[in-house]
Design a protein that fits this description.
Elements lengths: L2 E4 L9 H16 L3 E6 L9 H13 L6 E5 L4 H14 L2 E4 L3 H13 L28 E4 L6 E6 L3 E6 L7 E3 L7 H11 L4 E5 L6 H10 L6 E5 L2 E2 L15 H6 L4 H9 L13 H7 L10 E2 L2 H14 L2 H14 L7 H11 L6 H8 L10 H7 L4 H12 L6 H15 L3 H13 L7 H8 L1 H9 L2 H4 L3
Parallel strand pairs: 1-2, 2-3, 9-10, 11-12
Antiparallel strand pairs: 4-5, 5-8, 6-7
The structure holds glutamic acid (GLU).
């Protein structure tokens, strides 16, 4: 039975890197009919907040990544960690260390003076035949793990290939502080063990923790999970992804008008591939996902590609559903009297030219709120020769049958009468009615706006058009 976990530290929002880890862990469990566990690593009490836990849960829900077990909170498992520490002390795989901060500082200074890597020197480490001083009074000891001193610790990383550390490089890690609280690497080990995790999929910022975790697992007689360390995600510019790059929180993408299907599909391709497939359903992803096709090198974020995917998924959705989704966004910008059928028609007309829900809402806003075209646009398109034609067209609109084809015919007739080409009339009409020069076919836009709105808006330019 495959068991994976997502183990975020709740210190902020669910960021893009965390979401990819969650997605891959979820997909791996689903692919194998296994279980996906959610564990909240909240032992850093100063930085962990309930809001951040909620942000993680919200982000996972938005991406539709349901966990099978949990969420387990590390802060609620303290007794268990303490129990394992006692067991290790009893078995001799851990020991009390009474070295004071001052002694450690002195040790570090000596090592640095000798150009050595600062490390604990094992002075309280029990060895056969080694006499230890009596515990000094009044000092609360820390507990250190008795790391092997020779040999190597290695694993075949499912994302990065074989990785090896020499035990000589690892000193005896503190697993419990003087106040008895367990430390980060130790909690992870006990959790992965207790939760029966078979595959640890996580960011490669944890590679350096892995040899320590494996050594502790071995000391506990636990099965060693397989590890897959995912390469970091770089921003569009090749630098490490950070707030500077704009949205790094998954929920920011929701606010920016991305569909969760698009973001999930996009994240799936960050370090993983299935041939040349760029667009795939969630079912296909689960069916195809494995750890054999993870790219070890860093993945680079490509906002253009995400926008392209988002537009693809928007086009797949029924216009009525998109209309429902953008209604709150339009309302927030002052649109009133949104009529669902008409809005869906407008969506269908515009969806090909918008790659986010926000862009779609913005493009449709002039259907509800009278636009205020920029003076330069008016000057550019409202040419002297077009004005009489516009006035004639406006007059014709009063009585024409209200349908796109009839409006289109009136337009052609007007052009012919004034000896003009289509853009001479279509462009100023777009600017006057929608506030911009780029819209779908103008007869369709006019039909959708409705006679009253169109005539009222054109009447607003009476003086400019020299309409009587
Ligand atoms: N809590 C760690 C983090 O958020 C992850 C630990 C792990 O996956 O082992 O980076």
């Amino acid at each position: 039975m495959i068991r994976t976990r997502f183990a975020p530290s709740p210190t902020g929002f669910l960021h893009i890197g965390g979401a990819r880890t969650a997605l891959f862990s979820w997909a791996y469990a689903r692919h194998h009919g296994g279980k996906f566990v959610l564990r909240v690593e909240d032992t850093d009490r100063e930085r962990s907040t309930p809001e951040a836990v909620q942000a993680i849960l919200d982000g996972m829900k938005w991406l539709d990544l349901a966990h099978d077990e949990g969420p387990f909170y590390q802060t609620r498992r303290m007794d268990r960690y303490k129990e394992v520490i006692q067991k290790m002390l009893a078995e001799g795989t851990a020991y009390h260390c009474y070295t004071t901060q001052e002694e450690l500082a002195q040790l570090r200074a000596e090592q640095e003076a000798k150009k050595e890597k600062p490390r604990y020197d094992g002075r309280w480490r029990p060895e056969p035949g080694k006499g230890l001083p009596p515990p000094p009074a009044g000092i609360q000891p820390v507990v250190r793990f008795r790391n092997p001193t020779s040999g190597v610790v290695s694993w075949d990383d499912l994302a990065k290939g074989p990785i090896e550390f020499s035990n000589g490089e690892l000193d005896d890690l503190i697993i419990a502080r003087a106040d008895g609280t367990p430390t980060y690497n130790f909690c992870v080990v006990v959790d992965d063990w207790d939760m029966g995790i078979t595959h640890v999929i996580r960011g490669d910022d944890h590679v350096n923790n892995t040899p320590r975790q494996i050594n502790i697992l071995k000391a506990l007689g636990a099965d060693i999970p397989q590890y897959a360390h995912l390469s970091m995600i770089l921003g569009d510019d090749g630098a490490k992804l950070s707030k500077r790059h704009g949205a790094v929180s998954v929920m920011q993408y929701a606010d920016d008008g991305f569909l969760p299907e698009a973001v999930a599909n996009y994240l799936a391709r960050l370090s993983w591939s299935h041939g040349d497939d760029e667009i795939f359903s969630r079912e296909q992803f689960v069916e195809w996902f494995d750890l054999d096709h993870i790219t070890p090198s860093a993945a680079q974020f490509n906002t253009e590609k995400l926008l392209w995917l988002n537009q693809h998924y928007m086009k797949q959705k029924p216009a009525a559903e998109l209309a429902t989704r953008i209604t709150p966004r339009l309302a927030a910008k002052g649109a009133v009297a949104l009529e669902a059928t008409r809005l869906a028609e407008a969506v269908a007309l515009y969806v090909d030219r918008c790659n986010t829900l926000n862009a779609l809402a913005d493009a449709l806003l002039p259907f509800y709120v009278t636009p205020d075209p920029a003076p330069e646009l008016l000057a550019q398109h409202l040419t002297e020769d077009a004005r009489p034609a516009l006035a004639g067209f406006a007059a014709g609109l009063e009585t024409v049958e209200w349908s796109a084809p009839a409006i289109g015919a009136l337009l052609k007739e007007t052009l012919k009468k004034h000896g003009l080409k289509m853009p001479r009339l279509a462009m100023p009409l777009r600017v006057l009615l929608m506030g911009e020069a780029q819209t779908p076919p103008v007869d369709a836009v006019i039909a959708l706006l409705g006679r009253e709105v169109v005539l009222t808006r054109l009447a607003g330019y009476r003086d400019l058009l020299k309409i009587q």
